[in-house]
């Protein structure tokens, strides 16, 4: 077996690859994907350099993602941190201009065989391969706002940004990857470009193994979302108002920008008299988070037009039945638009409440769907991602 493995490895054309991301110091889904790309390519034997605007603080990375595979080399522009000041327009413009210049200049400067840009939402050109979670050029049309600005400011900046990126497309378009068939359709419509779907990595095994021994709470519905406007958590009190059976637990990441969302939530909870049935939890430790999710019977997703929905897959792996908006990646890709097969989709808070109450009163039905959902979750496991990203990268490079 060892000899066969050696022969197979010998056929691989090993490359010097730069994985570009503006920063890993603001941990989120895009940053996790960047780290997964680094790990998969290094495991394959390629030499991987991490190209960033600012130096990576690996203590922040490990605190949020645990043990990670480090790149062979790090190539950054600033030793100081600027990513926590991107709400300043001049700093943000300078910061992302530097990132764009790095994509243009660093490949010939360092003799990289390939540049993989995992920050493709803002800059989806100027690299050999770009992973796009959601193109910012579609933000205004789909009522989405970048995290580093506000709606009015983005309306003012968007036309100039769109023009610059359209020029970049003509100079060097590169190959696009994306996280769902849903976003693939948006890229085709807005950017007029084709893309390849590579689903983001989910630690399915971690959530699945923990669910085997869990005793499910009779009426718990879990919600996982950051306390920010784009997650539409104001839907939870509305669903609770129409539900007769459920108790809701929101587990959300919060920071200095979350207070307005939390204030609105508390006001709605009081208004609809559901204080005894909604628990707000902030920055829940990972172990407790996994434990609560494994005991929940149902998972409620509140963000419409979500790009993919990693938390939905985590909940399915944990044994919960997902109830999601009838739009976006959770519906088109994760549930495969099959109502009642792996979960349910809704178009109003009242409809969501009806599905939730129905599942809570019919454990046989809930159990059958939960089993199918847990099996479906393995389609999105990180091992599948590792194999697919390596296959696609090497095919494009060939």
Protein described:
With 398 residues, the chain is of the alpha/beta class. The protein folds into two domains: 12-201 and 382-397, Glycogen Phosphorylase B (Rossmann fold); 204-379, 3-Layer(aba) Sandwich (Rossmann fold), CATH 3.40.50.2000. It has helices at residues 2-10, 29-44, 58-65, 89-110, 151-171, 181-191, 204-211, 235-242, 259-271, 286-295, 310-317, 328-334, 349-361, 363-377, 382-397; strands at 16-20, 47-54, 73-78, 114-117, 129-132, 175-178, 196-197, 220-224, 247-252, 278-282, 298-300, 321-325, 344-346. The strands form two sheets. Strands 3-2-1-4-5-6-7 form a seven-stranded parallel β-sheet. Strands 10-9-8-11-12-13 form a six-stranded parallel β-sheet, sandwiched between helices. Helix 2 (29-44) links the parallel strand 1 and strand 2 (47-54). It is globular. Mean pLDDT is 89; it is low at 1-10.
**SSE-based structural type:** alpha/beta
Low-confidence stretches are 1-10
Stated plainly, the CATH topology of the largest domain is called Rossmann fold
User: What's the order of the H and E elements?
Assistant: HEHEHEHEEHEHEHEHEHEHEHEHEHHH
- The proportion of strand residues reads 15-25%
By DSSP, the count of extended strands is: 13
Number of domains: 2
Task: Report the span from N to C terminus.
Answer: 27 Å
What's the story with the biggest beta sheet? Answer: 7 strands, parallel
CATH homologous superfamily name of the largest domain? Glycogen Phosphorylase B
Strand line-up of the largest beta sheet? 3-2-1-4-5-6-7
Helix content: 40-55%
Radius of gyration: 22 Å
CATH class of the largest domain: Alpha Beta
Number of helices: 15
Average residue-wise pLDDT: 89
Shape: globular
